[in-house]
Amino acid sequence: MVVNIKKTDCLYADYVNLIEKIIGLGDDDELIKEKIEKILDNYAPRRFNTEEYKKNIDILKNTFQIVKEVKIQRKDDDNCVTGRIEEFRLETIDLLHN
């Protein structure tokens, strides 16, 4: 069995897309745009005393950046345990240790 795994950081991609949509709400409404800009212009709380102060917009712009997509092709071998979660024979357990 060959499995194609497309590894992207889906959580970050979804987060970035969501933020872009929320910011885009202000495109058609000046009042909403002002409120969004005010939130983005505020400083975010620091997690540590040594951390510098950052505005929300800077955190959004600089924290997440997807720069590479990795594709992995995987093929099951004789020692693969995929689909064998309930198999606890001594022979199988020994194979996992080796």
Question: TL;DR of this structure?
Answer:
This protein is an alpha+beta fold. 44% of the residues lie in helices and 16% in strands. It has one domain (2-97).
Q: Give the radius of gyration.
A: 23 Å
- Low-confidence segments, given as residue ranges, are 1-8
SSE pattern, N- to C-terminal: EHHEEHEH
Question: What is the averaged pLDDT score?
Answer: 75
For the terminal residues, how far apart are their CA atoms? 22 Å
How many DSSP H or I helices? 4
Quaternary structure classification:
single chain
What's the story with the biggest beta sheet?
2 strands, antiparallel
Task: Work out the strand percent.
Answer: 15-25%
Number of strands: 4
Count of structural domains: 1
**General shape:** elongated
- Helicity, as a percent range: 40-55%
Q: What would you call the structural class?
A: alpha+beta
Biggest β-sheet: strands ordered side by side in the sheet: 1-4
Walkthrough of the structure:
The protein has 98 residues and is α+β, with helices and mostly antiparallel strands. The protein has one domain. It is built from four helices and four strands. The strands form two sheets. The chain has a two-stranded antiparallel sheet. It has a two-stranded antiparallel ribbon with strand order 2-3. The radius of gyration is 23 Å and the shape is elongated. The two termini are 22 Å apart.
Highlighted features:
two-stranded antiparallel sheet, 16% strand, 4 helices, elongated, alpha+beta, 98 residues, two-stranded antiparallel ribbon, 4 strands
